[in-house]
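Good morning C.,

I know you're traveling, so I'll keep this short. The sequence:
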Amino acid sequence: YHAYSLKYVNIPSTVVSIGELAFRANSLLSCEIVIPEGCTTIGASVFKGTGVTSVTLPSTLESLGNEIFSECPALTSVNSKSTVIGNSMFYHCNELSTIKLENTIEIGNLAFNNASLSKVSSLELPEGLTTIGEYAFPRMSITSVVIPSTVVNIGEHAFTACKSLEKVVVLGPVIGTSMFYNCFALRTLVL
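The tokens, ready to paste straight into the viewer:
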């Protein structure tokens, strides 16, 4: 890594694995990243600290390292068909305005933690999701969320300090420990 002058990456459909730290800390890398269908592995911190603007993840991912896209200050959009969102995957990505999760079964610990300046107002979690990790969505600017009926595991503080969160619908059988701690705007909780 440390290819500091790299500005664009096009990942071809022949790539099945991206090793850890591959593009880490390249702030000039300012482009859309599309991980192709067929890619099964992304190592830890691959795009951490880069200028990546949007991310598309395929349904074929099987192994994800931690912090893959963390600390990407220009990242505004995530479109994922992956079954897993890894630990700290989008940690400190403050400009997120669109999060689209399809096929997601598990959201890891700290997945969107410290995205405190996030512009995501509504969060749609997919039916089929079973696990929301600890501190997965704290301090986000969301105003509403629906927890699908398939969710059976929710980590501590999953939505802590979402100060704009007004309405939550929980369709499943679980409410996590301190799940809505410091969510001062919360007015409606439908169980």
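Safe travels,
E.
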